[in-house]
Amino acid sequence: MFGRISFVVVAIIGILIALQQQFKPIPEPRDYVRGKNNTVLFLVNEHPGLSNVHAATAQSLLESHPDIQVHFGSFPKLANTMTRISSYAKRNNSQAKEIIFHPLSGLSSSDAYDNYPHLRYDEDGRLGHISPHGIEGINHISKNIQIYIDPWFQEEHLAHFKQITSLIDGVDPAVVVLDTNFAPAIEATRARKRVHAFITPNMLVDNFPGEQPWLGFLWKYPAMGSGFPFPIPLKLMAQNIYQNFRLISSVAKMPDISAKQEFLKANGVPDPIKFYGLHRDDVPWITQTTHAATVPVDFVPANVTCAGPMTLSAAPAEDQDAELMAWIKQKPTVLINLGSAFHYSRTHTRIMIEGIQKILEATDLQILWKYMLADTLDDDWRSWMVPLEETGRVTVTPWLTVDPFSLLSSGHITAFVTHGGASGFHESIAAGVPQIVLPLWTDTYNYAQLAEQIGVGIWGCRETSPDWTPECLRDDVVKVASGPDGMAFTAKAKEISAAAREQGVGRDTSAGIIAKLARGGRE
Ligand SMILES: *[C@@H]1O[C@H](CO)[C@@H](O)[C@H](O)[C@H]1NC(C)=O
Ligand SMILES: *[C@@H]1O[C@H](CO)[C@@H](O)[C@H](O)[C@H]1NC(C)=O
Ligand SMILES: *[C@@H]1O[C@H](CO)[C@@H](O)[C@H](O)[C@H]1NC(C)=O
């Protein structure tokens, strides 16, 4: 079914970079191979939380740089998105070419997590990735760190390396655009010495904690999964340092990763699973970092661009689903969408249904709920939703028929209940919609805290995270989506979205950088 999770890796990369910075060698000048002029190849996982920034950049390339041929190598689930982008781009610009999609075989990073039964669903349908913040969360990460760093079995990893190497050779692009969570693609690109760039949904503080002066990642910036505020208050500093040490000690010894590296090296992968060399000064790195909505860092490495939100919105919401938009326009509507990685357990479902009932009693709001039951359960969940849907004020749908960002920016969504993934966070920021963040794992706690700190929302059900109660769901949604508090949250969200717009249109900035590299190919 849908992709699972690929969240932790980003933060772990940050820690690994931190460890390696001390020993960073002087970079040797590199000669990159220049492929066919005006050709771009994206190599990404299909999970929307990871690939939306790439898809948005591709859309802008089609519309604003129609001389460039865009190729996309990803897993088959992304094919639809590519078709949609191509057809809408043609409406924007009749010169726009179509994206050439190259479906990859095998498992994407998120599907590869299913290789490990303890990370799958339990009998209640609760996903094994869900973990609390603080020390208990660190324990979860430490136990699974080798899986989060590289989820593929060694043969799967090698097969990806090989198929991607032939794809690169076949397309011969002037530039390869990479996803930081797709190690075999990074390895193939670098083994072939191709000109490349990274695009990431994450903020600088997620990617470059280790580059900050005075070991700032230890004491100055919130540790991964801590949910601590920035700057770290004195009374939490010792805890922050301790949590970092726990993380570091878990990456210090990784026998499974070492064995996998040996296997891959023996099979012709030159530099396998070497995450710490990810950023290079001569390789553009494009992030969604939005100055008005981030934890500011002291040091920004060379060639890093803060593009602001890179949102995917193929067409106006009305064009995507007129019927749904007609319903939404009736009343102020709250969108509940905890991301495509999260499927509900029976308990989560029951609590959310009760929470929604309480919201309906307390307000005049409507609710659009993107809901999927854990795919290991075959309960008749539709019947559970009947009492909600009979009110006419709730729409439950397993798939959103409209891009989340198109919904958010339609002007009819009053508040967004999200899990605090980097993608949803930035979409909400760009659209100026306040958020109720219900964090579920690792990096999402820091986004929950950030949303609260900059005043665009709250960390929902904070006392019980990652679990909820019907009462806290009601209280927090009512607070952000109605009354004088709601108006204050909306005003702040709009103010920050205006500031974000001054940074430029993220996907256009990103496309400009990629287009320049694409035009540097050979005849
Ligand atoms: C066409 O695409 C460009 C670049 O993405 C964008 O700035 C512009 O608003 C689009 N125009 C329409 C009519 O969609
Ligand atoms: C940034 O990357 C581009 C493309 O590789 C390169 O031409 C440029 O010299 C790099 N800038 C720095 C400061 O290294
Ligand atoms: C590549 O294409 C660009 C225009 O898109 C052109 O300016 C450049 O000269 C071309 N390079 C070569 C080597 O043909």
UniProtKB/TrEMBL annotation:
Gene3D superfamilies, alphabetized: Glycogen Phosphorylase B (3.40.50.2000)
Keyword Signal in annotation: yes
Coiled-coil region list: none
Signal peptide: 1-18
Superkingdom of origin: Eukaryota
Keyword Ribosomal protein: no
InterPro entries reported in the protein's UniProt record: UDP-glycosyltransferase, UDP_glucos_trans
The entry's keywords: Glycosyltransferase, Signal, Transferase
Single annotated GO MF: UDP-glycosyltransferase activity
Protein name: Uncharacterized protein
